[in-house]
Amino acid sequence: MINTFATLGAVSQNLALGFSLLTIILLLFYIKNNDSRLFISGRRAALISAALVVIATMVLARELIVSNFNLEYVAHYTSRATPLLYKISALWAGQAGSLLFWVFILAIYVLIIIYQNWNSNQSLMPWVIIIVTTIQLFFLFMTNFITNPFTPVEAGIIVADGNGLNPLLQNVTMAIHPPTLYLGYVGFAIPFAFAMAAMITKDSSANWIRIVRRWTLVTWLALGIGILLGAWWAYQELGWGGYWAWDPVENASLMPWLTATAFIHSIIIQEKRDMLRVWNMVLIIVTFTLSIFGTFLTRSGIMSSVHSFATSSLGPLFLGFVFLILVSSFLLLIYRLPLMRTTNRIESFISRESGFLFNNVVFIVMCFAVFWGTMFPVLTEAVRGTKITVGAPFFNQVNIPIGLALLLLTGIGPLLAWRRTSKARLIKQFSWPIMISLVGLVVLLLIGMKGYILISFTLAIFVTTTILLEFVAGIMARKRRFGEPAPLAFWRMLRKNRHRYGGYIVHFSIVLMFVGFTGKAFDKEIEIAVRAGDKFHLDGYEFELAKISTIERSNHFAWIAHLRVTEIGAGPVTELFPEKRIYFHRDPDQRKRQPHSELDIHTTLMQDIYSVFSGYDSQTESASFKIMINPLVNWVWIGSYIFVIGTLFALWPQRRKQ
After folding, report:
1. Is-above-0.90 flag for pTM?
2. For position 658, what pLDDT does the model report?
3. Taking the chain, what is the end-to-end CA distance rounded to the nearest angstrom?
C-alpha cells in the first residue's frame, strides 16, 4: 500500500519528465521560427519541470522523516530509531534518492539562471535551457524507469521497521559532505551550457565567460568544500588516521576540481588578452564530463570503494551519456574552430600569461595521472582478464612532484608582469623571496630535513614570502599615494581589488595545506591489546587504560574506553574516550548487527593524538587499540578554513559607484 503523498511524488517525477521533453521541443521550434511566444512557453515549461522536481524531492524527504516503510527506499535506508538528521540525509544515501537529489540541485540551478537572465542574454538562453534540460531529462529517465525512489515494497509484505542508515554515514559531516559535492558536480552544467550555447550561436567573445565566472567560482568552491569535508569525515570516522587514500571515488571528485581550477585561472587570460579561447572550451567540456564520469564511477559498481553504491545497471547508461557529451561537444568545437582562433599570442616566456599556462599544464598532468591510476585496474581487467591494483604509493610517487611544481608556480605567477617581465622587475620581485627561502633551506637542513619534506617546506617559505610581499607592496603604494595609515591602506586595498587579494588568500591556504600534507611523513602508530590498568608508550607519551564501561543508547550498544595520556617527563596531557559500538544490537539476526569504532582525538596546533577502539574480547577482558601521533595535520583544516574565506572574499560583489 502506498499513501497519497508518495503518489504525489511519483506523479511529479513523471510530469517533470514530460515537461522537460516539452521544453526542448518548444525551444527548438522557437529557434527555427523565431516566434517569441514559443520561447516564453518553453521557458515556462522549464520552470514547471524544475518545480515538479522540487516537489518530488520534498515528498521523498517527507516520507523518510515519517518512516513510510511502504516505500522500498525508505525501508532500506531508515528505521524508527534513526535520528531525524540522518533520516533527512538518507535522501542521498542510496542510489535512487541520490539521483533524484542530483536532479533537484539542477532544478534549483535552472530556476536561478532563468531568473538571472529573464531579460538578458536572449540569444544564448534558448540553447542554455535546452542543454540543461537535456541533462535533466537524462537523470529523470533514470529516476522514472531505472531506479525509482517511489517504488513500493512488494505486494503483501508489511515492513514493521526499516534497515536503518549505515553507521558510517551517521555522522554530521556526512550529512553535509554529499550535498556540497553535488552543488559542485551539478553546478558545472551551467558554465558548460553557456559555453556550448556560445559556440552554437557563433559568439566568440568572452561574454559567456563574464556571465559564468562567478558561477564557476561558487561551484568550484562548493566542490572544494565537499572534498575537504570528505577528508575530514574520513579522518574523524573511518579510523585509519588519514584523510586521503586515493580511493577511486575520492579521485572522481578531485579530477573535475583540478580541471576547474585550471579553467578559473585560464579565463583570466581570455578576459585580459583575448587568448586561449579554444583551450577554455576544452577545459569546461572536460570539467563537466568528469563530473558526470564521477557520478558514473560512484554508481556503476566497477570500483570497490567505501563511497560507492552497489553494482547496478546504471553503469552502461552513464558511460554512454559521458561519450555523448564528449563526442557532441568536441565535434561542435572542431566545427567552430575557425571562429574560435585568435591572433593574440604569448609575447614572452617570462610573463604572467606563461605562468598561468604552465599552471594549467601542471593541473592537467595531475588530473591525467589521477585518471590513469584510477582507471588502470579496470582497463587491465578488461584487456588481460586480471585486475592490477594501483594503490596510494603510485599516486604519491607521481603526484608529490607534480604538487610541488604547482606550489612553486603559486609563488612565481603573481610576481610576473603581463605581456613581458623585464630583467629589472625580475630581480626586484624575486630577490627577497629567494634569499629568505635560502635561509629557510639552511635552517631546515640543519635540523635534519631532507627529500621532498625539505623541498615542500622550502617552497612553503618561498610562496608565503611572495604573498606577503605583494600585500606589503600594495599597502606601501596606497601610503605613498593617499597618505593613509597602514591598517586603513590594507583594508581599502582589499576592498578595491577583492578578486586579486582573495586569490592570494586562497594561495596562502594552499601553502598551509601543503604544510599539513607534509606532516604525514612524521606519523607514528601502534596497535596493541591491553587490559584495564595496563600501560604502553608511543613517541614520548604514556597511555594507561583506566577502565572500560558500557552504555546502551537508542540505536546501538557501546563499550567506552577510558585512556589516560601523559607526556613522559612533563605530566598529564588529556583523557581519551574512544568507543566500540554495535548498531542494531537488538536484532535477533546477528548478521544485521553492525560493529563500528567511534574514535577520539586530542587536538593541538602541532599534532593530534588519535585513538581507535578496534575491538573488545569479553572473555579475556582485553581491548584492542590503534593509537597514532599525527603531526601538523591541523594545518590541513586551518588551510581549509582560509581557502573558504579567501574564495568568498574574491566572490563578494564590489560596491557599485553611484
Report:
1. yes
2. 40
3. 63
